[in-house]
Write a structure and sequence with these properties.
Elements lengths: L45 E4 L5 H9 L5 H12 L3 H10 L12 E6 L4 H11 L7 E5 L9 E5 L9 H6 L7 H4 L9 H4 L17 E5 L1 H13 L6 E6 L1
Parallel strand pairs: 3-4
Antiparallel strand pairs: 1-5, 1-6, 2-5, 4-6
Length: about 240
C-alpha cells in the first residue's frame, strides 16, 4: 500500500505487548499554495464526505464474531483505499480559475479518523469564526443559527452493516468518549432517533476526507471523486 503512494517505509523499532500492534508516523511535504486547512469555513459552502462511516462498529462486531462476511470485506476495502487521490481531486477542482484564493472554493478540509465525523467537524468549526459555533443535525433539513453547520443525516453514506451493528448495540470501545461531542449539537432531539445519528460518533480507521466546498464546484467534485473510485462520495450538509 505504501509503494502505491510512492511512500518509503524506513526505520522502526520493536516492542512487546499482550496484543499485536503496529504504528506509523508519516512525514511529508506540501507546496504552501496547495495546503487545504481545517478552516475557517465559509457560510454557504457544502460539506463533502469521500468515504462511508462505520469502520468502528463493524470492526467491533467482527471482534464479537457478529459481522457478516460482506460487511467485513467492504470495511477492509474502505480502510485500504488511500485518501491521496481524493486529496488530489479536491486540490484540482478547488484550484480552477483563480485558484482557492481566501478559501473561495474550498474553505476547509480534514480527515475523519478516531474522533469520528462529529469530532473532526467540530475541529473545523472551531477554526472558524468563534468557539461558540453550534452544530445542527437533522434527518432532512433544519434551521440553524449563525456560524453553524447543518448535517443531512439521510445523505451520510454508511458501510454495509454499520446501521445494523449499532441497532444491535455493538459499538466501538471509543464510542463513549466521542459521544461527549454531542453537547455541541443544537437540536439533538431532532436527530437522535435516526439510524445514522450514533454513527456520527463512530471512530474511523482510515476514514475519508471531509471538505467544505463552494456549491458551484460541488457537482464537479462529487463526479470527479466517484470517477477516482470513491463511489460513496456525497454532499452531507452545509455551512449556514
Amino acid at each position: 500500500q505504501l509503494g502505491r503512494e510512492n511512500c518509503a517505509l524506513v526505520g522502526g523499532h520493536t516492542s512487546e505487548g499482550a496484543e499485536l500492534a503496529m504504528g506509523l508516523s508519516v512525514t511529508g511535504a506540501v507546496h504552501p499554495d496547495k495546503v487545504l486547512r481545517k478552516g475557517p469555513l465559509r457560510v454557504g459552502h457544502v460539506l463533502v464526505l469521500t468515504k462511508p462511516l462505520g469502520t468502528g462498529t463493524v470492526m467491533a462486531a467482527d471482534m464479537r464474531y457478529s459481522a457478516k462476511g460482506n460487511w467485513l470485506a467492504a470495511c477492509l476495502r474502505s480502510m485500504l483505499q488511500s485518501n491521496a487521490s481524493a486529496a488530489r481531486v479536491l486540490s484540482s477542482v478547488c484550484s480552477a480559475g483563480d485558484g482557492n484564493k481566501e478559501g473561495m472554493l474550498c474553505s476547509g478540509c480534514t480527515d475523519v479518523t478516531g474522533f469520528g465525523l462529529l469530532g473532526h467537524l467540530l475541529e473545523m468549526i472551531q477554526c472558524s469564526e468563534d468557539d461558540t459555533s453550534r452544530l445542527e443535525a437533522d434527518s432532512k433539513s433544519g434551521l440553524s443559527s449563525k456560524c453553524s453547520v447543518e448535517l443531512i443525516l439521510n445523505d451520510i453514506p454508511l458501510l454495509p452493516g454499520a446501521a445494523e451493528c449499532v441497532k444491535n448495540g455493538i459499538l466501538s470501545s471509543l464510542q463513549p468518549q466521542n459521544i461527549r461531542c454531542a453537547r455541541a449539537i443544537g437540536n439533538a432531539t431532532a436527530g437522535n432517533g435516526h439510524a445514522t445519528y450514533p454513527l456520527l460518533f463512530d471512530p474511523q480507521t482510515s476514514g475519508g476526507l471531509l471538505a467544505a466546498v463552494a456549491p458551484s464546484v460541488a457537482d464537479e467534485c462529487i463526479a470527479a471523486l466517484k470517477a477516482a473510485g470513491y463511489l460513496s462520495a456525497s454532499v452531507i450538509g452545509r455551512v449556514v
